Amino acid sequence: MIMEDTIAAIATPLGAGGVGIIRVSGPKAGDIARRLFKPSRGELCFKSHHLYHGHILAPATGAVLDEVLVAFMKKPHSYTGDDTLEINCHGGLLILENVLGEVVKAGARIAMPGEFTKRAFLNNRMDLSQAEAVADIITAKTEEGLFMALSQMKGALRDQMESFQGILIDILALLEVSIDFSEEETDAQPPAHVLAEIEKIIARLTSLLATYDQGRLYRQGVHCVITGKPNVGKSSLLNRLLGEKRAIVTPIPGTTRDFIEEAVNINGVPIKLIDTAGIREPENVIEETGIGMVWDKLATADVVIIILDGSRPLTPEDDRILAGNKNRKSLVVINKADLPQKIGTDDLKSLLPDINIPPLNISAKYGDGIPELKDRIYGLVMNHQDADERRTGVMLANIRHKTAIEQACGHLERAKENILGKKSPEFAAFDVREALTSLGAIVGKTTPEDVLDRIFSTFCIGK
Ligand SMILES: Nc1nc2c(ncn2[C@@H]2O[C@H](COP(=O)(O)OP(=O)(O)O)[C@@H](O)[C@H]2O)c(=O)[nH]1
Ligand SMILES: [Mg+2]
């Protein structure tokens, strides 16, 4: 596909840095380079994929804007598949803006977020799942998340989809043969093994779907909200898990008012810890609003850590907090294990009648029980699989992919019903074609324009 206009953007993060890169892509890229760049030695002869030293000059005044290294990548061997110019400037915002300004005057326009990658996709340099992986690589928070994104960028998900599509096309061929046949013999049915083939592929799609829960956690992370009544040690626990004094800890109840959110990495899973205000009978409107916000936050949590203060008897507030989180994935911990304990086993039994793992005793202040708590958090969010096992197969991590596969399964279930109901094979063939369309959306073959726009608009500028 030939792109009409030439796009340009600063591709490096804004701010001071060693180098700042301006990326230009489109038919005018070479022309812009010839207009603005003056090589330090000899005549300008841009060999593709070579680095040239020289200066960027403003053509109108001849003023030197920066000393640079430039590279020209001739199409189709560039990231976007179009002619691409990369100008390595000194990494100052003003320099980059000045050079970008001249690039625009010379005929480029400022790129939209993700537009370089969108062009790469439109030029068939990569499929949509690979383009999405580019964004995931940039935002990956842990090694596991990065590994997943890298394998998707290398085409693992696309290869998987292609193999499924190949199977569906074979099934479709069998169905179409029986359609032709049915014109002569009215109630012709597809061969018996078609049904088995459909069942087999549904099973494979279903097991791929089962990887989503974990894949999503690696990609997006887990929201873990710490709750409990005032003064039980929520902020102390946040600090302890982080390994730094982030939240203010005092003996005065009601110290924490706003949410404090910090990321930690527990065995490769990015976890966002959220410290909250203590829940109790509010004493004023401000506190009431604050506590309402804590309940809202709890409602969005993937995991909740409920803290009890082991050095004091249980209170109705503890009861209310436990009851209010009954349906959430939660861990109960008894803090202040270093002090004489006031919560008896019987108190716990009446409070937590159906809990199967006993609450964990910890000391946020001194660190007792923290490694075990991390293991429990990890165990709660992940199924027990070791990392090597996870690394062997493709994992779904993106809701768009998951939805597409669910739709494909739905169509295939219908195909199955139509075959079992001895309907004309045309019905099943229609369903299988729909399933192919659903799978095609993952790699971008059948993805509507507005969905593409939405996907690329979440990228950063210059990517
Ligand atoms: N002895 C002891 N004191 C603790 C422990 N954890 C927290 N505290 C103390 O309990 C008080 C309240 O702690 P804080 O973390 O602010 O509780 P929050 O209100 O739940 O956030 C502070 O004086 C802490 O030093 C612990 O494990 N042992
Ligand atoms: Mg606090």
Description of the structure:
There is one protein chain. With 463 residues, the chain is of the alpha/beta class. The protein folds into three domains: 7-126, Gyrase A, domain 2 (2-Layer Sandwich); 143-211 and 395-444, Four Helix Bundle (Hemerythrin (Met), subunit A); 222-381, Rossmann fold (3-Layer(aba) Sandwich). Helix content is 46%, strand content 17%. It has 17 helices and 13 strands. It has helices at 29-36, 93-105, 115-122, 128-139, 143-153, 156-182, 193-209, 212-220, 234-242, 285-299, 316-324, 345-351, 370-381, 387-392, 399-420, 425-443, 449-457, and strands spanning 7-10, 17-25, 37-39, 51-57, 64-73, 84-91, 109-110, 222-227, 260-266, 269-275, 303-309, 330-335, 360-361. The strands form two sheets. The chain has a seven-stranded mixed β-sheet. A six-stranded mixed β-sheet has the order 9-10-8-11-12-13, sandwiched between helices. A hairpin with a 2-residue loop joins strand 9 (260-266) and strand 10. Bound molecules: guanosine-5'-diphosphate and magnesium ion. The site of magnesium ion has 5 residues, from helix 9.
